[in-house]
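Hi everyone, sorry if this is the wrong subforum. Our group has a chain we'd like a structural model of before ordering constructs, and none of us has done structure prediction before. Sequence below.
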Amino acid sequence: MFLQMLKNLFHRPAIRMARVNNVRTQRRSSIRNEGFVSYLTETGGLRPRNTDNYDARLRRMKLLKKLAVGALSAGGLWVVIESARALTLF
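Answer:
Right subforum, don't worry. Here is the predicted structure as tokens:
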């Protein structure tokens, strides 16, 4: 109970999708929150995420998957060839 009371006391409202979650702060006006969000927007606090890094990561993962599949198939082919050679000796 004491821990829950401390959590409620030190709770910080989250900012999600450029809007302030003011469920707990209904007494405050929405104009104050909108002003804060516009300030963040003007100063560059809510910059869009650079998607080039994300796309580059997706390309690297795709390449790694292709390399892994190629290595496994080459290993499987090697096992089949060596097994065929071993069977021809007997």
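For your construct planning: Residues 2-43 form one domain. The mean pLDDT is 77.
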